[in-house]
## 1
Amino acid sequence: MLIMLLITSACNSLSSFNTTIDSISKNEIVVNCSDVINKGKKQANSIGYLCTVDINKSTVFKDISDNPLTLEDFSSGNLIRIVLSTPQPISEKNRRFEVAEIILIKDKVIE
């Protein structure tokens, strides 16, 4: 039973995903994670979900070409790739996590 639970948990875990930045502060970035949370649902609700990305000293910031960046190079509306420090499930109840890397994919997303 425990093995089945571990396998199920591992299968639902993410190591990275693409998203857009909602807001930025000194130690965290708030991102849109609605697509991740609603992925695979037959009837996804219309609620928008935000996730909080905790930034620490070891978080790496870079662009898609692997050029180093700083937090100041990012802004609301940027399309980014989040690489989690450890793979984990992201759900309505689990929307805060630490990241290893934040990669700038596109400066601004046209809505």
## 2
Amino acid sequence: MVIAGMLILALFLSWKAHTSVWIQVETNSPQVQQYARMAGTTLQIKHLIKDNTSEETVVISNGISGPK
């Protein structure tokens, strides 16, 4: 009974704590910044690329997808 309650609480907390906040990933390039987040069961990677004229290009790619 206690284990079932703990599992239900863990499921509820993981559902409530699910956020889609972008987390910065460390890179070796000053022109490229990377961010990652979980969107549902899919890992998304955002690349922010700056060129010499300070123009920014944003590319978002879907990475690993979880079970469906």
## 3
Amino acid sequence: MLIVGFGKLARMVTSVNKDVETFYVYNRTKEKVVEAKKKNRNIHIVTPDQFSSFQHIFLALPPDGLITFFQQYGAFFQENSLFFHTATGLTKEEVETYLPGHRVIPLKYAGHALQAMRENNGNTFVIPPGYEKERQIIEHWLGSAFSVVTGTEEEVLVANQVAVEETMKLVAQVTERLDERKIPKSIQEAALSHIPAGVVHAHLAGEHGAFAKKILEQWQKEKCDET
């Protein structure tokens, strides 16, 4: 598997995935990869003249970088190579226009790459139905730190967007309330850096404490009364 691009998503995968012996990485600028290689000896830098050696490619580029890369290097790959496409801003059909003669598989990340690195937990990639063979390939490569589930590109886009929008509103509201109470910034930062993530994890695991349970029950009651 060749990783193309070395932004937050690729850095997270190479950091969290402990099952791969060698990560083959190409990035337009080598500095990031060279720096990462100092901490992770499993990273191996690849140059364009080696692209033809890889049939499976993990595309970790933003939309604009992805298009530029294909225009410059698309012809360097073997025909019918398999490209796992992760950019949420481009659909499979849009990417295929730049990769004639190759297979494009949508593989979208449902989560936050930096948070995954902090937790050392890869979280979830989503692949559409109908790609069972390709799913097995990417599951094997991603390893035990990740899960791969079935879903659509649109579902991941909506889930990520809503989660970011509502979280930003939450942070703004909490900050405003704490400012009104004249809580020092150091205490605000300590609370915000732990409590929201902790409450969410507890909610997903059904492990709320008494205070959180009381708030949830009150909110659910108010919601029922409104209807």
